[in-house]
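Objective 1b: paired records.
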Amino acid sequence: MKLPENLIQKLENRKQNNSLRKLPVFNNLVDFSSNDYIGFAKSESIFKSTHAYLLENEIFENGATGSRLISGNHSLYQIAEAFIAEFHDAQSALIFNSGYDANVGFFSAVPQRNDVILYDELSHASIRDGIIMSNAKSYKFNHNDFEDLERLIQKFPDTNIYIVTESVFSMDGDSPNLEELVGLSEKYNCYLVIDEAHTLGVFGEKGEGFIQYLNLHHRIFARIMTFGKGLGCHGSVILGSKDLKEYLVNFARSFIYTTGLSPHSVATILVAYQQLEIEKQNIEKLRHNIVLFNQQKNLLGLKPMFVRSKSAIQSAIVPGNENVKRLAQQLQDKGFDVKPILSPTVPEGEERLRFCIHSFNSEEEINQILKLLETLFFKI
C-alpha cells in the first residue's frame, strides 16, 4: 500500500533540506563515532563472563516471558538492582529496558498536574518526549543558565518544581555547574533530576558518574543511568529513594506495560558493573585520550570551532548540512568513522561533527584525525 501523500511530502522536504536520515552500513573504520567509551561493548572478557555466569547458575531461558509485574521478574533482576544500588550508593535501583523508556516513564508519571517541570533547552529528546506526556506544566530555561532558571523558579511559589538537566549533554559534550545547580535546587526546595547517560564509565574512580564523582548524589532526587554507552550493553536504571522505586513500579507505564529484559541482557548488565568495580586501566586511558584530544586541537588552532568540553564527546561546529556531510565523508574516506549531526537534530547553523573519544583510540589516531580535520576544514 502506498504511503500517504502528506508523509511522502515530509520525506521530500527532508531530501530537499539535505537532512534525510538513513541507516548507516557497518564499517571497519577507526571508531570516533560510537558511545562505547571504554570498550565494554567489544569486551571479549565481559562476553565470556556473562555466558559463564548463566551456565554456572543454570539459567537457560531466552526471554523474560512477560512484563516484570506478571512473569518477567526473574531472579537476576533483584541481584543486579541490589548490586547497582550499592555501586551508586543509592537507596534503590530500578532497571528499565532503555534510556528512552526510563526518561519517558519517569517524566510521564512522576510530575503531577499542578506541578512544574523546568528543563534545560538542550535536554535529550527522550526527556522532552516524557515531559510532553506529563500532566505537569513545563518550561525550558536557557542552556546551563541558572539565572534564567532561578527567574522561572520564582514564578511558581508553593509549587512542586522538578528541575531537569544532563550531567554531560549528548550533542555538545559540555556540563552544567552541578554544585551551583544543587545549591539552587535546595534553596527553593526543588526536585532535581539528572540524566547521566554519558558519564557512566567516564567520570569517577570506578566510572560511577559525574554526580557521584562530585559527591552530590545524596542531594539529588533521581539519577538516570543508561547502559548503552559507557557500560557497553543495553538498558537503563533510575536511582533514588525506595519510595520512588515503589512509585515507578506502580505508575511508570513504560515499565509496567512492556516485556522485561532477557536473563542474558540483565546478566550482561551485572557482569559489566562488576567489571567497572575492578576496571582502572581503560577508564584512565580514556581520560588521557580526552586530555590529549583537547591539547592537540588547541595546538592546531582548532579550538574556536569546538564546543568547550572535558568529556568524551567533542563537537566541531560546521554550519550547514551540506558542508558537514561533505566533511564527514572526506574523513570517512580517509579511514575515520566520524558522523555528521544535522539539523533538525541540532538547530540550523549549529550542525557539527561529533567526535567520540574512546580508551581504545591510539595517540596516533587522535593526532592523525585532528591534522586531517585541520587540512580539510580550511578548504570548505
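Objective 1b, second protein:
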Amino acid sequence: MILMEQRTLGRTGRDVSVVGQGTWQLGGDWGEVAEDDAFGVLDAAVESGVTFFDTADVYGDGRSEQRIGRYLKNRPGVGVLVATKMGRRADQVEENYVLDNFRTWNDRSRANLGTDTLDLVQLHCPPSGVHSSDAVYDALDTLVAEQRIAAYAVSVETCAEALTAIARPGVASVQIILNPLRLKPLDEVLPAAAAAGVGIIARVPLASGLLSGRYTKNTVFGPEDHRTYNRHGEAFDRGETFSGIDYATGVAAAAEFAELAPEGATPAQTALRWIIQQPGVTSVIPGARSVEQARANAAAAALPPLPQSALDAVRDLYDRSIRAEVHDRW
C-alpha cells in the first residue's frame, strides 16, 4: 500500500487522505458499472493510500452505499472513513428535514453500509433555509446522541450556504464544488472554514470530466449519464454537471487548462493537485469508473506543488472565460 498525506477532517477529529474516492459513479448514474469493477476501483484506491470514501443514499438508489458496505465487510481493518449523505430521497422542502425522516434515512444507510454508527452524514444540498434552522441541527445532535452517526456535515451548492453552516458549532465539514473552473469558494468559504476548524471536502473536482482534457464539443454521453440529462439542471442543480458551465465554454477552457499540466502529469492530476494545495482544503473526492482512473487520481497527491505561475494562469483563465458566466450564480 502507498502512503498518502493525511489531513484532519474538521471537527470529526479523524484524519483522511488528501485524495478521497468519490463513489457517485459506482451507483450507476454515469453509466453502468459492474460490481466486480466497482470493487476493483475501491481496491485500487485503498492500495493507493485513499482512506476516505464519499457516497450518498441516492447514488444508484443506494447501490453505491451497498457496494461500499459489501466491500468493507470483506476487507475489515482497512481504516476508511465513509461519508454518506441524506435528504434527497424526499421532496425538497424544508418541512421534510425533520428527526423522524432523518432516522428513517439513517436506518436505510446503516443497513446499506452494514454498520451501526455512520462515520459522517452530510445533508445533501438541501433547500437553503435548512442551513439556518435550529430544529435541523437539534435533530442532527440527537442522531449523534443516539449513536446513529458519529458526526454530521453539509453538502452545499452556494457559498452563502457554506458560510451559514460553518457558523454552526456542530458542523464537522462542508462539501462544496471547487475546481480550476469554479474559484468563488476561495474568496470567503475556505478562509472561514479554516478559522472555524471546519473541514472542506472538494467535490466535482474535474468539472464532470471536463478537466481530464478527454472531451471535445462533439463528445456524446449515454442517455443514463447525468452529463446528458442534467446539462441544464433538468434533474438536479445544474452546478453538479460540468460545474454549471456551458459545455462548449467548458471544453474550450479545459483545453487551455490542459496546457498547464507539468511534465509527467495529466490534466486531471494537475486539477487535483491545484485543489489539494488550496489553503483550507481537507480532501478532494474525484470519482472513477476504472482501476486506472482510481490509481491516477490518487497519484496526484504525490505531485510537487504547482508553481505560482501556474496558479496565476488558472486565475487568469477563470477571469477571462468563466467568471462572467457563473460567478454571481453561486
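The chain is about 35% helix and 10% strand. The chain has a mean pLDDT of 94.
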